[in-house]
């Protein structure tokens, strides 16, 4: 009771100063006392200061009107007697809550408590709190066990994925983690390769990163802290996760792609390591939200919903739209940095891409299959037909990487310049169901081809069909690859002499567009 | 935490055995079949029962098929009832009238004075006439035996209609079990986030059941609640937000909110007492009976408890050997549309006597097209039979001549009435638990 005395003032303050409803359950959770203790505490307060307070009692007993009915009522102080008269037998009375005034809507009594229990509910699922073990109740139940194991695992997993997503507002399905995991190994491999080709110093940095990589938080910090050079390599594991999350805007499918892309990106990034300060920043910016965004509640509650959302989006092609949102900012960038190729997957490092972009773009574009650029080629199996071309490319990339890695941002940029660039094009059209569909399409361009943008948009609008989006991504890689193997493949229209010279590329693009029209016509 | 050392009452426990396998659809494979199998299985299964019932009543009468009837001979025919109802909605009529200017009238009940019964077996069908035939009490899909003779104009004149009667019942275990009072709590129609639902009321219920509310005496009563069953319609989803288009994020919030709120309450419940939740007609589950359990993903908070059990819609389980069967109310609601009775409990009683808890499935009640059996046939009579989402609390202790005893309970919608039902497993006594905040409200006026 000594404690009770101590607690009276703060309770009064809550009620009278904060105008808050203090119910016995709220109080018991707040002060970590049992419900019954809390009732006594409230009774104390009411005894001493009852005049200033409105008190709601919980009155229960056998109903007089219906002997087969046990009735529990909440009644204000003024009606206490009346309520008692309606009951017979043993009548239980205790204070339910105290408040400065009676709320108009009784449900207001509930809301403070609800908010509190929601908070408890949001706590990590492996944590036992008073909501979860009912510890303040007067009745214990030995049959209750919480199997935190499996569910909690999924829960935590969802959290991991969700955190980043939270920042973006789209949660990522749990599966994301799994996907992310595999990505690491390829990245590492890539790092190794880069090491070989690139500077030793870089390697060390990477190794460090790898060590850190596991903890997401660390990553975020490290990514911010360290220079750009380290960044790309350093993130292998965690980065991929985050990136995926960042990509998370799209539906789950999109995430998959995004992840694939992300994997690649880091790898590529490594190669040019020094390249992109910008990219580094961007990534950091992406990463940054992670630590802050704590969505545990969301994931817990709506894990399921997330999955659903993902589906919905995929169906509706929302993925693209979401990307667009990000892109809107990018659009400008695109113009500004035509050189840079932006992958669908995310608003990410613009600079890195141009060079590496060939590979990453592919990945990002939409092959569900993560195409690992360097590693893959060497390791085993490029999924795409264009392997040969890829190899060629890869070789190129390596070369660059080696060049660029040592230090020079400029070097990389220059290297990238000659190559074809991919540009993100937004196309909007009205589909059969009257919905406005905006799609993002990557097109290869030479830097000169900026002019074409408008044309592209308009021209594409006509034809872009659902399938196209996917196709195009495929095409693009081909085009790039074309240098070696004219990827005649699917992209008849687009097939441009994928030669790296800017002019040619430009022409090719234009030609492609016009040819497109011709076809149509 | 030290203060918590004060003694806590241990909650009573009862051995819980779910018996939902009958209603589990996972073993079923849909291959485009229609419903004929279901009717066939039903008739086939209940014919055995009815044959013995009929022969006990009329040992000398022969059991005949409809095609085998001979005019004027007293005999017994067993078949499935079809109720000819002129008010029964027909999709064709509705389509035709939908196009016309005259608006469709949708009566609450489709019973009409001109309704009549037709008996059907594999061989044919025949109209039932006679003073003992009360079409209003029967519905399509019920399997019965009729004793009578074929009239001159091809009708069957019924002298008596014979129903299967209550199914055999397991031994009621009460006396053996030390005579403790143990209660099972039934509640339905929580409809969280519905405009008419009062969250404070529901919270009171949760507090009562979990042992927070009341003085020691009340808490000791709460400690006797060994099981809670939530019988359907637990959430109020805004289905109008689901238009087939992608859902806006703010709308997603609206959609998810009721489930979140329910999960929160269920978490508190499951942390204190074993809790079953059944899907209902408005819940995010399949439409047709048997409804499959609500997915655990909907309740990330509650589903981690060993005490949380997502059940099928007809839900059958045993507590300490007391067999309990219940539905979320669709079967009884449908009977209410196509037949007449004084109370919901009477409908329930009929389904027990028909040995079929959902005879109108698949005619007017959605139902999975089983091919191998009819899961709604009662092979064993429950000791407690409840039906959720009714207008008011009703109960009846049904006893037949062989001493079978069943507690029938119509569980009211909680959001409308604030009433839950507590049944004593020891003696099947039953009382309501009313939670009310009305006196708070009236104060303001």
From TrEMBL, chain A:
Q: Which Pfam families match?
A: CDC27 (PF09507)
Q: What is the lineage of its organism?
A: Eukaryota, Viridiplantae, Streptophyta, Embryophyta, Tracheophyta
Q: Which UniProt keywords apply?
A: DNA replication, Nucleus
Q: Where is the composition biased (Low complexity)?
A: 483-503
* Bias type Polar residues, positions: 184-196
Q: Region labeled Disordered — which residues?
A: 152-423, 439-521
The alphabetized list of GO BP terms reads: DNA strand elongation involved in DNA replication; DNA synthesis involved in UV-damage excision repair; nucleotide-excision repair, DNA gap filling
Q: Name one GO molecular function term.
A: DNA-directed DNA polymerase activity
GO CC term, one of those recorded: delta DNA polymerase complex
Report the domain of life of the source organism: Eukaryota
Q: Where in the cell is it found?
A: Nucleus
Residues annotated as signal peptide? none
Start-end of Basic and acidic residues biased regions:
375-393
Question: Where is composition skewed (Acidic residues) in this entry?
Answer: 325-340
Classification via InterPro entries:
POLD3 (IPR019038), POLD3_sf (IPR041913)
The protein's name:
DNA polymerase delta subunit 3
Automatic annotation (TrEMBL), chain B:
Q: Which InterPro entries match?
A: DNA_pol_a/d/e_bsu, DNA_pol_D_N, DNA_pol_delta/II_ssu, PolD2_C
Q: Which residues form the DNA polymerase alpha/delta/epsilon subunit B domain?
A: 184-393
Which keywords appear in this protein's UniProt record, sorted alphabetically? DNA replication, Nucleus
Residues covered by the DNA polymerase delta subunit OB-fold domain: 34-160
Biological process annotations from GO: DNA strand elongation involved in DNA replication; mitotic DNA replication
Q: Where in the cell is it found?
A: Nucleus
Record's GO cellular component, any one? delta DNA polymerase complex
The record's similarity note reads:
Belongs to the DNA polymerase delta/II small subunit family.
Name used for this protein in its record: DNA polymerase delta small subunit
From which organism does this entry originate? Ceratopteris richardii (Triangle waterfern)
């Amino acid at each position: 009771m000594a404690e009770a005395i101590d607690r009276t003032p703060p309770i009064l303050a809550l009620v009278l100063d904060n105008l808050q409803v203090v119910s016995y359950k709220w109080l018991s959770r707040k002060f970590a006392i049992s419900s019954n203790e809390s009732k006594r505490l409230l009774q104390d307060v009411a005894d001493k200061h009852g005049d200033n307070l409105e008190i709601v009692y919980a009155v229960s007993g056998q109903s007089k009107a219906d002997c087969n009915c046990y009735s529990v009522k909440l009644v204000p102080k003024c009606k206490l007697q009346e309520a008692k008269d309606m009951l017979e037998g043993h009548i239980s009375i205790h204070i339910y809550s105290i408040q400065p005034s009676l709320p108009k809507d009784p449900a207001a009594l509930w809301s403070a408590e609800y908010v509190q229990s929601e908070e408890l509910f949001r706590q990590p699922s492996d944590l036992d709190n008073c909501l979860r073990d009912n510890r303040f109740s007067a009745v214990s139940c030995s049959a209750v066990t919480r199997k935190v194991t499996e569910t909690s695992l999924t829960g935590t997993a969802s959290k991991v994925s969700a955190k980043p997503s939270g920042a973006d507002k789209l949660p990522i399905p749990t599966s994301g983690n799994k996907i992310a995991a595999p990505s690491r190994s390829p990245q590492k491999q890539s790092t190794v390769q880069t090491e070989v080709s690139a500077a030793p110093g870089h390697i060390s940095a990477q190794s460090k990163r790898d060590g850190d990589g596991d903890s997401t938080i660390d990553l975020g910090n490290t990514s911010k802290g360290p220079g750009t050079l380290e960044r790309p390599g350093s993130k292998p594991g965690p980065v991929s996760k985050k990136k995926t999350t960042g990509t998370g805007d799209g539906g789950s499918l999109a995430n998959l792609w995004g992840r694939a892309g992300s994997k690649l990106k880091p790898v590529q990034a490594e190669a040019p390591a020094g390249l992109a300060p910008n990219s580094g920043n961007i990534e950091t910016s992406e990463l940054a939200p992670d630590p802050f965004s704590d969505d545990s509640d969301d994931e817990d509650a709506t894990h399921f919903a997330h999955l659903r959302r993902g589906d919905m989006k995929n169906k509706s092609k929302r993925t693209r739209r979401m990307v667009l949102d990000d892109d809107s900012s990018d659009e400008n960038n695109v113009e500004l940095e035509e050189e840079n190729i932006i992958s669908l997957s995310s608003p990410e490092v613009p600079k890195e891409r141009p060079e590496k972009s060939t590979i990453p773009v592919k990945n990002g574009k939409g092959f569900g299959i993560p195409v690992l650029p360097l590693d893959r080629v060497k390791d085993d199996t490029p999924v795409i037909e264009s392997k040969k071309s890829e190899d060629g490319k890869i070789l190129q990339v390596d070369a660059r990487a080696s060049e660029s890695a040592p230090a020079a941002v400029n070097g990389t940029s220059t290297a990238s310049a000659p190559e074809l660039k991919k540009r993100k094009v937004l196309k909007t059209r009205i589909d059969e169901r009257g919905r406005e569909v905006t799609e993002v399409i990557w097109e290869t361009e030479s830097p000169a081809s900026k002019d074409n943008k408008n044309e592209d948009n308009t021209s594409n609008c006509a034809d872009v069909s659902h399938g196209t989006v996917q196709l195009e991504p495929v095409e693009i890689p081909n085009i790039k690859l074309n240098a070696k193997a004219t990827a005649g493949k699917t992209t008849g229209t687009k097939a441009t002499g994928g030669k790296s010279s800017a002019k040619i590329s430009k022409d090719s693009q234009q030609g492609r567009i016009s040819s497109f029209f011709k076809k149509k016509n | 935490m030290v203060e918590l050392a004060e003694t806590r009452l241990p909650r009573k426990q009862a051995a819980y055995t779910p018996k939902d396998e009958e209603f589990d659809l996972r073993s079923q494979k849909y291959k485009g079949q229609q419903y004929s199998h279901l009717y066939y299985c039903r008739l086939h299964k209940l014919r055995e029962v009815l044959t013995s019932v009929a022969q006990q009543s009329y040992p000398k009468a022969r059991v005949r098929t409809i095609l085998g009837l001979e005019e004027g001979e007293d005999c017994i025919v067993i078949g499935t009832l079809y109720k000819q109802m002129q008010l029964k909605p027909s999709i064709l009529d509705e389509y035709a009238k939908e196009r016309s200017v005259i608006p469709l009238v949708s009566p609450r009940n489709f019973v009409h004075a001109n309704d009549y019964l037709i008996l059907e077996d594999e061989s044919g069908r025949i109209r039932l006439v006679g003073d003992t035939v009360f079409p209003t009490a029967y519905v399509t899909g019920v399997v019965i035996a009729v004793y009578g003779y074929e009239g001159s104009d091809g009708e069957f004149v019924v002298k008596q209609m014979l129903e299967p009667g209550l199914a055999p019942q397991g031994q009621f275990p009460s006396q053996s079990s030390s005579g403790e009072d143990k209660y099972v709590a039934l509640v339905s129609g929580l409809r969280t986030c519905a405009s008419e639902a009062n969250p404070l009321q529901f919270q009171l219920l949760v507090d009562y059941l979990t042992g927070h509310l009341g003085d020691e005496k009340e808490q000791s009563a709460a400690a006797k609640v060994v099981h809670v069953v939530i019988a359907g319609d637990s959430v109020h989803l805004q289905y109008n937000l689901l238009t087939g288009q992608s859902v806006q994020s703010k709308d997603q919030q609206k959609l998810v909110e009721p489930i979140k709120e329910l999960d929160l309450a269920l978490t508190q419940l499951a942390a204190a007492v074993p809790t079953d939740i059944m899907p209902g007609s408005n819940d995010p589950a399949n439409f047709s009976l048997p409804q499959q359990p609500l997915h655990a993903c909907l309740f990330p908070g509650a589903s981690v408890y060993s005490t949380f059990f997502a059940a099928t819609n007809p839900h059958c389980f045993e507590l300490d050997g007391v067999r309990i069967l219940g539905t979320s109310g669709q079967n009884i609601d449908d009977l209410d549309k196509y037949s007449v009775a004084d109370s919901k409990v009477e409908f329930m009683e009929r389904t027990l006597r028909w040995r079929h808890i959902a005879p109108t499935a698949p005619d007017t009640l959605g139902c999975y097209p089983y091919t191998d059996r009819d899961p709604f046939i009662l092979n064993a009579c429950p000791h407690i039979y409840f039906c959720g989402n009714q207008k008011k609390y009703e109960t009846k202790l049904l006893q037949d001549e062989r001493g079978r005893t069943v507690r029938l309970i119509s569980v009211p919608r909680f959001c409308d009435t604030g009433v839950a039902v507590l049944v004593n497993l020891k003696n099947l006594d039953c009382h309501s638990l009313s939670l009310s905040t009305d006196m708070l409200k009236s104060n303001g006026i």
